[in-house]
Amino acid sequence: MNVALLQNWADIEPLLNALLTLPSEEQVAYLDRLPPAQQVWRATLEQLMRADSAANAAGFLDWAASLPLSDSTPARKGGDWRAEQVLGPWQLVRELGRGGMASVWLARPADGEFQREVALKLPHSPTPQLAERFRRERDVLARLNHPGIARLFDAGVTPDGLSWLAMEWVDGQDLISWSQAEHRTVKQDLALLLQICDALQYAHGQLVIHRDIKPANVLVQADGQTKLLDFGIARLLEDPAEPQQTALTQLGQRPMTPEYASPEQVRGEVPGVASDVYTLGVLAYRLLSGQSPYAGATAQHRHALEQAILEFRPPSPSQQAQDPARRKALRGDLDTIVLKALSKDAEDRYATVEALAADLRRHLDGEPVLARAPSWRYVADRFVRRHRIGVSATALAAMILLGSTGWALMSSHQARSEARRAEAMYDFVLGLFNPDHDTVANVKLPDLPLKEVIERGARRALTELKDQPEVRAKLLHDLAPMVEQLGLVDLATTLAQTRVEDTLRAYGSDSLPYADALLGRSHIREATGEFKEGLKEAKQAQAIYEAHHVQDPYRLVPLYEKLGGFGFRSHPNAEPEDAFYLDRAVALAASLKDVNASQSSILLGILRLYLGEIPKAYTAVKQGLEANQRDYGADSWQASTLEAFLGVLAEHGQRPAEAEALLRQSVTTMHKAMGADYIGLARNKIGLAGALFAGQQREEARQLMADALRIVELPINAGYGGVRDQVQVLALGMAWRGGDWNSVKPVCQSYQKQSFKATTPYYTTHLAQVCAANSLREGDLALAGQWLDAAKPSYTYFTKAPSWTMGLDLRRGELAWAQGDKDEALRLWRHALSVSNTTQLAWQSQAWRLIAQNVHMDAAELGRLQAFKRQLEQAGGERYYAEFLKLLREAIKSQMS
After folding, report:
1. Residue 665: helix, strand or coil by DSSP?
2. Are residues 751 and 660 in the same domain?
3. Where does the record place the region Disordered (predicted)?
């Protein structure tokens, strides 16, 4: 190891640890994203990675002697050990501690050459069960190399068959004792918890859960460094299932410490990451409050304790703390954070230890935490039950939409006593319903529409609370997407821009609130089709998050979504890096509650489609749909959005009946959830129209198309440029196929004034081939050429899925034919067929007819034409494919005459 590496190891080690937790295929991308100041270590990191790979390939730490499962060796009593005794390569120094199954001794190498002292773990008896437990602990510890975890140095057996583990000796006290002896403050205790979170998150990254987090297994050294110990009952997450009869159960034990067990462990279920989050919450409760969350039950019998863990909601830590200053410090955010970790339902806890740590850091930094007090909907329901007469439908709906703002209103009495910001939020929301701040209840506008309530609130947020930047930022964050959904795009843009300006002024351009605000503006960039601007801001946010080492999934989901989503619509071609980001967004979103998976899943589905990966696109969107149905309900607009796109993918996969069912359901659900003029309904209706237009339901398709066009032209939807493009261009294609030239020409003229381009390469491609066809019909070959030239970049963009450009090949072939180059025309038409798949049935059918009407086919080519016709007859028949089958019959007839 060279001198420079040693001198800079403090800077290099965190980067190496992060690298080694990633799959090999993601490591290069991680290195590419390192900021310039850390790029200087790239060569060193690559060298260390190669060394690690070589060590793994050589079986590092796998050489330890097999721990025997034979029970033929006579039992040895735990009291037989004595100082100076030699066991294998080790000489015992003194006993450090003893448990029911093993003792831990301070030991040093017996040969005296290297005097590293270790903690030598020795079982009381070399039974098969204990040997298996030691083997498990050895296998787990061999994976872990972290400053917050006691390391495994060696493992093996003595000549008489006694298993042993030699681990790092930690000279320290258990967590609770050390904190109490040092008279630590709450802030100092949180620093200890963050160390433990870091170590535990690292273990989870290595697919290891601890399952026995308690004070005795967390030692604190004199310098304040925590060390996580005893992975003896840890479990590898990658194990498909834990055997029903493990060594632990054979010993008559469940793998847990009762007072620190999670509800899942008490029920006898196989625990996962959520179980460690829970036990970490118990540890945090003990450390911060000085009491067990189940203090009353702990003093009773084990059954009472288990019942408490399953059913009893602990009081907040601040209520249990004895010191008044500590009670005050815990009240509010810390109570909420700890109680979220202690949720009975694993889905209501933090999704990861890092998410818990991120909220602790937010609290320390004075930022709003993401944890919410339990079920504000439950509290809202109780509020309404107490005040049935005074709560109108509008007010109730506003509370539901305002979310956290509604929670501040419901819990106003408690919030005002706890934090000034909650009081400001309460006053703001109350002002929506009592704008004159009358001292006597006075409902002046009982029938005020919900949209107007929200709009009033949004405009008030722009002028009020300037002395409360956190409250104002939260309101702007919540209101901007809500206002945008209601069609007030200009107002939403102002809200998002104001939040960006406020955070820049209050916190600076390298702050997390500023990065959050940049990403918060992405909803507007999405609605208006400003993809390049959105990508630029997402990259700004990414740089800030990386500088702050952000690992919080609630921040990373929107970041990855925007990097990938804006990226693939801004780059010259669909790049795998974009898919990487969207994959990460969808995977993270699926693990979190109250995170809408619609946009990430749709964007990933579109990108997979553009990469020619139709099954992967379908899988991505189906997973998102299932998550949204679970979190928001089958009748939610969130589920409807994904249902519609899944229907489009089923159509592309040549499953028309499934497509129709999904799209009809999406239209019904969206109409019921959001009303007849909602912009999302236009997108769903044009999707259903596309699935029906080629079949026997063309008239219904025309009606759907007309209503979709009506919706996007409404003044309230004027800001949705991206959706308007989608609906107009898809409707244009159907109008052309149906011979409605009077509808085609004005739309083409409109886009001609916009430099022949729509918002994305897909819609530009679709637009260009339709408008080129219209120009050819009118005999304007020059204009047709201009349309096709404008779409040339599409060939680069769709390199991996050339079927998307086959419509352009058809038009280019028709242009060549009109110019007298028949060979080039035939080449282009046949090339279009060579790249076709199930996604472009209209263009395939047209290509076959063009070829058949202009050249004599050989037997093989005619056979492929007939096979394609049979394929459509079997997949959908006349009901779905009447238009295409008619073209194919004409093609076959022309060959037979």
Report:
1. helix
2. no
3. 247-267
Q: Mean pLDDT across the stretch 283-307?
A: 75
Give the mean pLDDT of 410-432. Answer: 42
Length of the chain, please? 897
Residues 312, 335 within the same domain: yes
Phi first, then psi, for residue 86 (nearest 5°) are: -105, 125
Question: Each residue of 248-277: pLDDT tens digit?
Answer: 333 334 445 778 888 888 887 777 888 899
- Sequence letter at residue 863: G
Angstrom distance (rounded) from CA 718 to CA 711:
10
| Residue 293 and residue 219 in one domain | yes
CATH code (residue 288): 1.10.510.10
- Of 762, 763, 749, which Cα lies nearest the Cα of 797? 762
With respect to residue 297, please indicate whether it lies within any of the assigned structural domains.
yes
- The CA-atom distances, in angstroms, between 434 and each of 393, 412, 426, 428 are 16, 15, 12, 10
The domain in which residue 654 lies consists of: 633-723
Number of compact structural domains in the chain: 5
Q: Is 121 annotated as a binding residue?
A: yes
Backbone angles phi and psi of 252, in degrees to 5:
80, 25
3-state secondary structure of 682: helix
Asked if residue 363 belongs to a domain, the reply is yes
**pTM (two decimals):** 0.50
Please indicate, yes or no, whether residues 746 and 863 belong to a single structural domain of this protein.
Answer: no
Over the stretch 488-503, which tens digit does the pLDDT of each residue have? 767 777 877 888 888 8
Residue 302 lies in a domain: yes
Inside any domain, residue 881:
yes
Q: Are residues 826 and 844 in the same domain?
A: no
Structure tokens belonging to residue 255 = 């793998």
Structure-token match 């498909």, residue found: 240
DSSP class of 221: E
SS3 readout for 267-308: CCCCCCHHHHHHHHHHHHHHHHHCCCCCHHHHCCCHHHHHHH
